[in-house]
UniProtKB/TrEMBL annotation:
Source organism (scientific name): Bacillus salitolerans
A Pfam family annotated for this UniProt entry: PseudoU_synth_2
EC number(s) per entry: 5.4.99.-
Segments forming domain RNA-binding S4: 1-59
Protein name per the record: Pseudouridine synthase
Length: 240
């Protein structure tokens, strides 16, 4: 790829700004000073430095965020803060986007990447990638509900859901539950509970496919996935 494209992608400014930077003679490929913006570089085998500092090139970025409530899962919005607004500039320059949506009031595991292919596969209804949610419910969740979810429940628009695995963590006048679903219909968890006459008061996603929320992340914090985690996601999305 061209050196100006690489440096621009890595946050060194627009192509025009990078051209100016190259003129200063501070950019090297291996030991050679590069001033021509059209110079080609192979970042896999060559080392690019700016002012002696190596530039680590990568095409894709994979982030796990503990999404806070009140922030929307989108790249841009006219009214609300988005999950992308929470990113540091060095991550935002990769133009990542959220993989699917969590409601504004939902918390928890949100993947953010610029890898369109992986995102597409994880969201494909054909892949049945399981998503696990933890929720507080405004009523006693019963074994009948567990059974109903196992059969699939009819949502307000007549759609009958695929089987959901409901686990009662704490039953009572308000209950704590975990639910695994393999679909991603709009407001699905909330609408599944509405189908059995109950209401979700608090919702947090704790798992997506093989990836569990890193509980050391405070709300609004995020970290890069490890290579192993990215590989697990790739396997999930290609096999399931
Ligand atoms: N189901 C919902 O109802 N809301 C979410 O944010 C995710 C799943």
């Amino acid at each position: 790829m061209r050196i100006d494209k690489l440096l621009s992608n890595m946050g060194f400014g627009t192509r025009k700004e990078v051209k100016q930077l190259l003129k200063t003679g501070t950019v090297r490929i291996d030991e050679t000073i590069i001033k021509d913006a059209k110079t080609h570089v192979d970042p896999k085998v060559q080392t690019v430095t700016v002012n002696g500092e190596p530039v680590e090139y990568k095409e894709f970025i994979y982030l796990m965020m503990n999404k806070p409530p009140g922030v929307i899962s989108a790249t841009e919005d006219n009214h609300d803060e988005t999950v992308i607004d929470l990113l540091e500039i060095e991550d935002a320059i990769f133009n990542p986007f959220p993989v699917g949506r969590l409601d504004k009031d939902t918390e928890g595991l949100l993947l953010i990447t610029n890898d369109g292919q992986l995102s597409h596969q994880l969201l494909s209804p054909k892949k049945h990638v399981p998503k696990t949610y933890f929720a507080h419910i405004n009523d006693e969740v019963t074994e009948e509900d567990v059974f109903a979810f196992k059969q699939g429940v009819e949502l307000d628009d007549g759609y009958v859901t695929k089987p959901g695995e409901l686990k009662i963590i704490e039953a009572g006048p308000t209950s704590k539950i975990e639910l695994i679903i393999t679909e991603g219909k709009f407001h699905q968890v909330k609408r599944m509970f509405e189908a059995v006459g109950k209401r979700v008061m608090y919702l947090k996603r704790i798992k997506m496919g093989p990836l569990a929320l890193d509980e050391t992340l405070q709300l609004g914090e995020y970290r890069e996935l490890t290579e192993e985690e990215v590989e697990l996601l790739r396997q999930e999305s290609s096999y399931s």
